[in-house]
Amino acid sequence: MSTSAKVPPAKLARAVEWSRHHLYRLHQRLTPAPAAVLEMIVAGWTSQAVTVAAQLGVADALADGPLSIDDLAARVDANPDALRRLMRALISRGIFRRRRDGRYELNTLAHALRSDAPVSMDSAARFYGSQEQRERWTLLVDSIRTGDGVVAALRGKESFDYFDENPELAELFNQTMTSVSKLTDATVVAGYDFSVYPTIVDVGGGHGPLLAAILATAPASRGVLYDLPSVVADAPGVLRAQGVADRIQIVEGSFFDRVPSGGDAYILKNIVHDWPDEKAVQILRNVRAAVGSRANVLLVEFVIPEHDRDFPGKWVDLEMLLNLGARERTAADYRKLLSEAGFRMTRVAQTASPLSVVEARPA
Ligand SMILES: C[S@@+](CC[C@H](N)C(=O)[O-])C[C@H]1O[C@@H](n2cnc3c(N)ncnc32)[C@H](O)[C@@H]1O
Question: Cα angle vertex 327, ends 321, 333, to 5°?
Answer without folding.
Answer: 155
